[in-house]
Write a structure and sequence with these properties.
By secondary structure, this protein is an alpha+beta fold. It is built from two helices and four strands. The chain is globular. It comes from Paenibacillus nasutitermitis.
C-alpha cells in the first residue's frame, strides 16, 4: 500500500468532503480529508488505482488537484 497526499482546491463544506469521499470510495480507495487544509490523504494499491485515476475522479467533480 502506498500513502498519497493530494491538495484539493475548491472544497468549502462538508458536502464537498462527502462528494470527494464518494468518488474515491467508488475507486476502492479510502482516505482522510482535511477540509480546512484542503488535503486528501489516501492509502491505495498502485497496482489497482493510479494517482491519475484519483485526480481524474476528483477533478470530474469540479475541484482542482495540485
Amino acid at each position: 500500500m502506498q500513502q498519497t497526499t493530494l491538495q484539493v482546491l475548491g472544497m468549502v463544506c462538508n458536502h464537498c468532503v462527502k462528494s470527494v469521499e464518494d468518488a474515491l470510495n467508488a475507486l476502492g480507495v479510502s482516505g482522510c480529508i482535511d477540509l480546512k487544509e484542503g488535503i486528501v490523504v489516501v492509502e491505495h494499491d498502485t497496482n489497482k488505482v493510479s494517482i491519475e485515476a484519483m485526480k481524474d475522479a476528483i477533478e470530474y467533480l469540479g475541484y482542482d488537484v495540485v
